Structure formats: structure tokens, C-alpha cells
Amino acid sequence: MNSTGTAAIYMHPTDALHGDLGMVRKGDIVIVISKSGATEEISDLISMFKRIKVKIIGILGDPKSELSKSC
Q: Average pLDDT per run of 10 along the chain, which is 71 residues long?
């Protein structure tokens, strides 16, 4: 995405929870890739993303997970 002029970053969930989440701003779009969509880190991030008011796009394996319901 960066090569098209669209700012993009990769962020590991654990790093996000330890300070890197400061790079995410209101109005951003977050793409979350997860097999289960239900890990503790993902659950914590979802609540933070909602607080920041970002849109969440999920690519995941469990359509009944918390992540799926938040997209």
C-alpha cells in the first residue's frame, strides 16, 4: 500500500498493546488477520480500536468470533 501512496504499517498485536498503538489514529482502517479471531490480544485490541474509532476489516477463520462480530 505504501507504494501506491497510501500510508500503511504492520503491527504485531503484542507490540500494539505495548505502545505501538499510538500510531493508529481516528479514521484509520485496520486490517486484522487472525485464524481464530478470539485471542486475548485481539480482544484487547478490538476494544482499543473501538475507543479510537477506527474501522476494522477482519480476515479470519471463525465467523462466530469476537473479531468477526466487530467488523
A: 90 88 93 91 91 94 90 90
Residues 61/36, Cβ–Cβ less than 8 Å:
yes
Kindly report the pTM of this predicted structure.
0.83
Please name the amino acid found at residue 25: R
User: Residue 47: left (phi > 0), alpha (psi -120 to 50), or beta?
Assistant: alpha
Please tell me the distance from the alpha carbon of residue 13 to that of residue 44, in angstroms, as a whole number. Answer: 9
Q: How far apart are CA 16 and CA 3, in angstroms?
A: 23
Residue 50 burial by CB count (10 A; 0-12/13-18/19+): exposed, middle or buried?
exposed
C-alpha cell of residue 23:
500510531
Fill in the amino acid letter for 56: I
What grid cell was written down for 12? 504485531
